[in-house]
Amino acid sequence: SDIGSQKDRVVTEEEWLQRWEMSNIGFHKEQGHPLLRKYLDVLLNGRSGLRIFFPLCGKAVEMKWLADMGHSVVGVEVSEQALKQFFAQHSLPYCEEPVPEISGAKKLQSTSGNISLYCCSIYDLSSSIVGKFDGVWDRGALVAVNPCDRQHYVSLMITLMEKNSSYLLVTVSYDPNKHKGPPFYVPESEIKSLFG
């Protein structure tokens, strides 16, 4: 698979923080992503009260939507601004606490307790800190992860999944020689080899 000039591209944490500060967040969808509504049954698989993980969650409106359905939502995002905007935009009261296992990390949790958002690098998380999940909504994470970090990312995601977990993944298809990313182009063959 030819991923063009993207193979060695690295976007730093600082660049992501800058995008949030400058509101350069074209990836955010105010109405939520139509594919989650379309494939919600696949994610839930007839189950209720699930723990659902949002990697690189930003301020995704779907977190509130799924929490309102009775699910427990956990997200991780490097931008504290994004997380605070999420709670503000939904008028959700929350409390903030340090995450003892991760230096400098914070957990912002809705006072109702069903939404917990970690402000840190996703690579600092582990199942001993956040537990395991029945479902994952990966709408912009795998395609945002630096190509050199994909294997690390997927290995982590697999350790966070329960046995009967559902993983919904959205990717983008385009000619990687014409766009440097992110979002990065992840060919289907690579997705199959990464997730097995």
TrEMBL record:
Residues annotated as binding S-adenosyl-L-methionine: 16-27, 56, 77, 121-122, 139
Main localisation: cytoplasm
SUPFAM superfamilies, per the entry: S-adenosyl-L-methionine-dependent methyltransferases
CC per GO annotation: cytoplasm
Record bears the keyword Protein transport: no
Gene3D superfamilies cross-referenced by the UniProt entry: Vaccinia Virus protein VP39 (3.40.50.150)
Single GO MF annotation: thiopurine S-methyltransferase activity
Keywords in alphabetical order: Cytoplasm, Methyltransferase, S-adenosyl-L-methionine, Transferase
Enzyme class: transferase
GO aspect biological process, one term: methylation
Xref: PROSITE patterns: SAM_MT_TPMT
Reactions listed under catalytic activity: S-adenosyl-L-methionine + a thiopurine = S-adenosyl-L-homocysteine + a thiopurine S-methylether
Subcellular location: Cytoplasm
Pfam families: TPMT
InterPro entries xref list: SAM-dependent_MTases_sf (IPR029063), Thiopurine_S-MeTrfase (IPR025835), TPMT (IPR008854)
Enzyme Commission numbers on file: 2.1.1.67
Family from the record: Belongs to the class I-like SAM-binding methyltransferase superfamily. TPMT family.
UniProt name for this protein: thiopurine S-methyltransferase
Originating species: Calonectris borealis (Cory's shearwater)
Source species taxonomy: Eukaryota, Metazoa, Chordata, Craniata, Vertebrata
